[in-house]
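Quiz preparation item.
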């Protein structure tokens, strides 16, 4: 009975994409997907996220990654950021490693397969600082033009509480140079002056909506000017076959030390596969 219920819950996720959405993602480097989760799914995932974040305390990476603690800096007040919840919470795992979601990623990016890089709960607390413009992929332990993230609104995300903004087409202008998410909102545009010429798009979402963005698309979020938490759950995915670039990011120490530059990142425990198309054909 429990298993049947489990299936029904998963089946109600809206995982079909239109060809317009795919074309729009490929053109702009991001796309909005409305109604991804039902109200019940939002409640289930939100509860799991809030509970897991609370249980982690100041520890920022769960499940054996780099040992880091949140502090009291400007960055700590951009959001409460807790990573790899999927490693310690089955609900987060069920959603973030879902194979239908995996298929959406493959279709959007036009690549054969993805592994989880890391998930992140991103809670912009009341009066939280804005999220400075940045690119994601340069922080990670591999470089790819095809990495992708999902950002799921678990509360309505609005211009008042810090919804996301994207600069369309910037995935084609970016290299792997980056800036930190610090207190200089527009620093990214000093290294990429061409990106300044494009108008950012504000992407408010209802709880249950999600967006997908390429790891090289410039994006940021506003401040939270409200008294309520802006709660989002996100996950970044790495194309299958990506290679180690020498950066640690959140890798566990022993694994990090064992890696050679250029080695394929293929650790099924740490970076499980969420979709592999043509797997049958190649088997
Ligand atoms: O939620 C935010 O404020 C920023 C999110 C972000 O940068 C991301 O998901 O890559
Ligand atoms: Fe980001």
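Solution:
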């Amino acid at each position: 009975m429990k298993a049947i219920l489990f299936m029904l819950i998963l089946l109600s996720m809206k995982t079909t994409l239109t060809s317009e959405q795919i074309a729009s993602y490929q053109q702009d480097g991001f796309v909005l997907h409305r109604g991804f989760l039902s109200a019940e799914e939002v409640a289930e995932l939100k509860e799991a996220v809030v509970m897991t974040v609370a249980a982690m305390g100041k520890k920022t990476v769960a499940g054996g990654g780099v040992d880091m603690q949140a502090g009291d800096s400007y960055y700590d007040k951009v959001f409460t950021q807790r990573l790899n919840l999927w490693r310690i919470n089955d609900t987060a795992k069920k959603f973030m490693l879902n194979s239908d979601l995996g298929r959406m990623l493959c279709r959007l990016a036009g690549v054969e397969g993805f592994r989880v890089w890391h998930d992140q709960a991103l809670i912009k607390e009341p009066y939280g600082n804005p999220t400075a413009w940045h690119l994601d992929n340069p922080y990670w332990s591999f470089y790819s033009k095809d990495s992708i993230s999902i950002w799921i609104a678990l509360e309505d995300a609005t211009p008042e509480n810090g919804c996301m903004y994207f600069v369309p087409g910037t995935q084609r202008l970016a290299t792997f140079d980056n800036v930190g998410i610090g207190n200089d909102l527009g620093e990214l545009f000093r290294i990429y002056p061409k990106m300044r010429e494009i108008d950012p798009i504000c992407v408010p979402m209802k709880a249950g909506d999600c967006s997908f963005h390429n790891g090289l698309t410039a994006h940021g979020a506003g401040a939270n000017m409200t008294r309520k938490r802006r709660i989002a759950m996100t996950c970044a995915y790495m194309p299958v076959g990506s290679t180690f670039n020498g950066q640690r990011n959140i890798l566990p120490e022993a694994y990090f030390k064992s890696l050679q530059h250029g080695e394929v990142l293929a650790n099924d425990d740490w970076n499980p596969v969420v979709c592999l198309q043509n797997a049958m054909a190649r088997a």
